[in-house]
Each structure stands twice: as C-alpha cells, then as structure tokens.
C-alpha cells in the first residue's frame, strides 16, 4: 500500500494536477461541453475519476484519520450521492454552461465531494454497503437515461433534443454494461470489501 | 468421480429472527388464504362483496402472497445457510422491518386509498384509475413494493458477501470448479448452491423491478414522461417472475437439508446437480416471456426464445431434486412423520404444478389459455402443494418434540385435508380454465359457477387443515429454538 | 462522542445540507430545468428588458421602448424554420383573434422577433408575416440588426439559440408577455395559447 508520499506518487500527483487544469482550459471545456453526452458521460466522470485518483494518492494512514474526522463511511457516501445527483439535474447542466460560478462549483464538487469521499468510504464498506451504492447507481442511471429519452420537452436549453436522447441511451447502455460487470466481479469473488463493517471506523493499522 | 458419505450434523434450533419470520408468515398466509376464499365465494355467488372489494382483495391477495412466500422462503434459506456461512442477523432483521413497513404501505394504499390495479401494477393501469383511486394511493402501493424490494436487496447482498468470503466468489458458490473441472467432492452443499442461485437472479430481478417502479412513480406525478407499455410489461414480468420463481428455490433447501437427516444419506452436489442449478440460474431469467406470448408486438425471436427456454427450464432442478429425493428415500426405511410427508409431497406438488405451465408455455395454447383460470391453477398448485408444503414441513421439523414423537391423528388428518383440499381446489381452477372461465373476473357466467362452488368447499377444507398446521407450530414455538435431534432416523434398511 | 454517534450526526447534517442545496437549486423542488426556472423567476420578479433597436418587415426602424404603456406578446423565430416557428405563427394568430378587437393595437400588440438577422431581411419577414395574416401594425415581424443588442435581448429573455445539424437552429420556444412597464412578466408554454390570451384579457 501507499505508505508515504514517495517520489512516484509525487509525480503522479503532479500529472493529475496538470490533467485537472487541462480539463479546465476553455478549449477542453468547449469541446467536452459542446454535446450533452460528452458533458455528462465524459467530462463529469473524468472529474470524478480525478477525485478518486487524488484520494488514492493520499497515504493510507492519512485516509484513515480523515475518514474518522468526517464521521466514517456513511456521511461520505451520502455527500457523494447528493453531489452526483445534483449535477444530473438538467438545470444544473444548463447553469454550468451559462454561469461561471456554477461551472466552478461543478469542477470542485465532482472531484472533492464525489470521487474523493467515495474512495475514503469504500475501504470501510462491506459488500452490503458497496452493493447498496452500486445497485442504486445502476437503477438510477437507467431511470435517468429513460427520463432523458422520453422527456416530452427539451430539458436543456443549451443542447439539441436529439443530443438529449442520445445521452439517455448511452446512460441506459452504460448502466446495463456496468451492472453485468459488477455481477461478473461477484461471480469471481472480487469487490467484496472487508468482511465485517468496521465498528470503530478505524482499521487495525490505525490503532 | 468423488464419493459422498453422509456425515451426521446436529439438528439446530431456529434463531429468534427465523421464528419471527415464520410467525409473521403464518399470520399473513392465513389472512391471504381467507382473502382467496372470499374471492372464490364471490365468484361462486355464495356471498356478495361487490366488484370493488373483489379487486381490492385480489390486489392484496396477490401482493401479500408473493411477499409472504418470499419471506417464508427467506427464513428457510437463512436458517440453513447460516450453518455454512457467516450471515448478519442485523441485516436479516432489517429486511423484516422493511418488509413490514412495505406491508403497511400496501395495506393503506388498498384499504384506505382504494387502490385495486392488481399486484402486477401493469402500466398504465395504476396511473389510469379513472378516479377510482388517487395518484397518491398508486404511489403508496408502488412505494411499498419498492421498500420491500430494498429489504430483499440488502438480504441478498449480505448472503452474497457471506458466500463470497467463505467460498471465494459466487461462481464457486455455484460449484463451477467442480462442474467444469474434475469433481473433487468439495463442491458447496446444496443449500449454498441454491442460495447462490437465488441471490444472483433476485439481485438482477430486483434492480430491474426497482427501475420500473421508480419510472412508474415518476409517471404517476409527471404523466408526460411516458413509458413504453411493452417495455414496462417486459420489465414487470421479468422482475415478478424471477422473484416468485425464486421462492421455491429458497424453500427447496428444506428438502435438501432435512430429508438426508431422516435417511442418513448425503444429498450430493454432483455434476448433474451443479449443472442443473447453473443452467436454471440463466434460464429462470428468460422464461417470463410466457406471460407475453399474446403480445404480438414483441419481436418474434423474443417470444420463440421464451417458448423454448420456458420448456427447458421446467425440468433441470425439478428432475434433479425429484430424482435426488427418490434416491434418498428409496429403500431407506424412512419414517414418515408430518415433516417428511410434507416435504415429500411438496416435490410431487412442484412437479404437478409445473405441468400446466409447461402446457401454457406453448404459444398456440397460450393464446387461448393464458387469460383463463388455467394459469392461477398452475401457480396455486406449485406454490401451495409445492412451496407452502415445504414451509409447513420445515415448521413441523422445527417443532417436533423429539425424534420419536408420534403425530396425532388430527395432524395426519390435516395433512390429508391439505393434500385433498389443495388438489380439489387447484383442479377446479384448472378445469375452469379448460372451459374458458376468464381470469381476474369478479363475476362469473352461470356455467362457471358450479366449479367456483366446488373450489370454495375444497378451499375451506384446505384452510381448516392449515389452521391445524399453524396451531401446532405456534404451540411448539418454545421447542423450535432449541438444539436437539428432531429427525426420526430411518430404520436400518439401507443397503 | 463515540464514532457511531458522530457518524449518525454528520450523516444527518450532510443529508439536510444536501436537501437544502436541492431545494435551493430547484426553487423548492419545482424547477428542475432551466426553462422552468426562467418562468418561475419571471413570475416572481418581472424583469427589465434592454431597449433594443428593431427593424420591421417594411424596413421601418423602431425601439422596444415604443411599446411601453401597452401589453406586448413576444415570440422568437427564424423564418427558415420548418417546425415550431410555423406553429408559433398559427398560435400568435390564435391569440390575436382571442383578444377583443377594440383593444388590439390600442392596448395590446404582438411582436415576432427573428434571431437570425443575417438571413431574415425585411422581405423574408414580410413573407412570414403574410403567411399568418400578420397586419404589420398590430402584429409586427422584426429583426435586431446589431449583434450585441440581439444577444443582450436574448439574454434578458433567457432564450438560448444553438445551431442544429441542418443549418437551422434549436431554441427554447415559448409565449412571452411584456407588461405596460416594459418588463417581462409572464412566460408560458406554446400549447397554452388560450390561457395566455385569457391572462391578457384580464389585464386589459
């Protein structure tokens, strides 16, 4: 595991920071936000992934103490749930395009309120917690996709109506594929997490 | 081939949680049976409750029965599975609490809100009430189902966690290394294999079910988000069929676990057994199209696939279980008591009950039979004489005072009352189906009424017998939680 | 405080904070799209509009301010449009026909504004107007020639125009009502022509 900030993880952090800034450049933003599918299914997931990688670069001990300060796994999961679903609102999508403050909020909240806390929480979640997060995510992604497909109106003023339908279909497809991938990991026995929920919230390593 | 020898394991008593599940199952089961009787008597024109109450009761009877057999099946599965893997009692109880919450929501929706669109909540009926019930009542009903579903998702996730950490993956829980490689005799016991299968299919079914429920909840309040009716029907039947099928695969664990204790012969997880469970894991997800064979708008390949897989899935587990039970009982000198009788008759009920479905799964038959009482005839046979018999067998097993305790004449009479009552009751369903009595009709043509009357009398016999079963179990609750030898050992006739 | 207690406390805190953000971000769970938000906001506080210079179907130059003191129905179109703008023409005609004749022109006027000034020269505007029986006085078809002015007008109305793949545009289509004070006071769906007209009559 990552014990201390090694030379290697220092370089990774730098690369990650550069990538984050690159995503924030007007060129990258214009291109990624030009279509609803790219906005929701490429840019936003990339921002979450940045948070995930950032959290993984934090040394294990620091992750543990941070998690304790944040009150354990569930506050982190709930924060991620709220932050991620907020950006699924068509209104939030539009706002990100027209209001620079909203755009800034998006660039900050997706990595730091979704990706980062999820990683912190993940190590403490058993299969029940993880499965709860996953199954919720799959069914809600599919339902959201369906909403975008059948919406009788253009939900985003900034996007073409067929773009909205495409994005919906991509979400449904992604949800089905991810669901089967997750079931696959269960069949071979991965992704289970710790066997018992950690009551103290701290691993033995921390004590 | 590996050799299997029987290693005696002590009969364990039930944890308080399992008993809570079973007591609630008894109460709800009895209530739902009385509801069923009311419906049959209304059709038989013996009473007159009116169409509104008929459909309200029908909705409750459907949702209640599906829920309660799932709860009872889960109790059996959990009781035996926890002897092999480390299950969480907290999650088991959380499921019960969520279940009861959902039941209260459903009861309120139907009794106070007049919701009566059948438990299948087929789109667009719940949202198209023509003023008979409010959107709130429909939402409460579907919300109740959603809450119950969340409870079962948690339970299955816990089972998945426990199986994975004990065996290293759900694939291993199904015994794939022994199925696809050399059989080293280390395949998981049948209880684990069955639980793994149920967990996989129910997780998939419940995620699909939750999705369609949320879609319909949105549609209730924002009707402009239209749902494709065929998609909705496909998703609902996928979820509903997988879920109701899974109950018998949970309950059959009682047969796998208890019969060997009577005859001291092992139930083998051999290659054939493993293959049939793996095959059914896949197939049980593709047989729901027999509910859709009349919907010509579906693609043809989809319906033909449903026809073929429906045929195929009828058999593997049924034959493997039936044959296995024969092998275990044959010349074993088994001592027949209430438990072993009920478990044995349950396999007969399962086999007999599957046949009408097999016939109904034929496309040309389905066109004329599916919307008749033939189909209730099918699922009442296999649920009552199959699944519910397993549950009562399990209850008699838990409550048996000692291994040599004789059954009273009343119990034996109740057993035959149960078998004869169920057969008579379901046969009149099937015969009414044959003469085209329509399904889900509050009022019947005069030609159909005699069979409704016959069915009502048999149903009364059945309920009277069940009352004996339940009374016996409740009076023996104190014994059910203790560990002692219950199974009557076979007289040593084994060869 | 034990960790379990703190966990519950912080979870509750995060949940209420998250709910509040949703409440705030959707105007109390009413406006999930920018389009609804725009309408809700206008209803709550009518919005001032920039005084832009327009050119009508006869090439006549006028200002938006010229309409002050009258109720003004506004919609946004481009004349090459083959879909919604066509029905918009019919809907505007329907609204005009629902207003009492003595009020037309005196107390109420209609204005269709093109956001495609490059293509929509007065001749094209005139053709569009004639197709729906616009008289050119009570109901005028106009364009804003100055790009910056056009953008400020669209922004004030909350109209977003994006080019589609067929050389035309996609835009949020609605019926707008500007009050006597020159402020935008009502936005409604295009299939609500009759209620819209009733609102106008009530204000006359």
UniProtKB/TrEMBL annotation, chain A:
TM ranges: 12-28, 40-59, 66-89, 101-120, 132-149, 169-192
Organism expressing this protein natively: Nitrosospira multiformis
Protein's UniProt keywords contain Membrane: yes
Claim: Membrane is one of the keywords in the record: yes
Source superkingdom: Bacteria
Keywords: Membrane, Transmembrane, Transmembrane helix
Name of the protein this chain belongs to: Transmembrane protein
Automatic annotation (TrEMBL), chain B:
TM region(s), chain numbering: 18-38, 58-80, 92-112, 132-157, 200-222, 234-259, 271-288, 308-330, 342-359, 379-398, 410-431, 454-474
Residues in Cytochrome oxidase subunit I profile domain copies: 1-495
Record InterPro entries: Cyt_c_oxase-like_su1_dom, Cyt_c_oxase-like_su1_sf, Cyt_C_Oxase_1
Keywords, in A-Z order: Electron transport, Membrane, Respiratory chain, Transmembrane, Transmembrane helix, Transport
Biological-process GO terms, alphabetical: aerobic respiration
A GO term from the CC aspect: membrane
Any GO molecular function: cytochrome-c oxidase activity
Signal sequence coordinates: none
Superkingdom classification of source: Bacteria
Pfam family name, one: COX1
Annotated protein name in UniProt: Cytochrome c oxidase subunit 1
Annotated source species: Nitrosospira multiformis
Source taxonomy: Bacteria, Pseudomonadati, Pseudomonadota, Betaproteobacteria, Nitrosomonadales
Automatic annotation (TrEMBL), chain C:
Binding site for Cu cation: 81, 85, 171
SUPFAM superfamilies tied to this protein: Thioredoxin-like
GO molecular function per UniProt: metal ion binding
A Pfam family recorded for this sequence: SCO1-SenC
Disulfide bridge positions per record: 81-85
Leader sequence segment: none
Key words, A-Z: Copper, Disulfide bond, Metal-binding
Domain Thioredoxin: 43-204
PROSITE patterns xref list: THIOREDOXIN_2
Family: Belongs to the SCO1/2 family.
Protein name: Protein SCO1/2
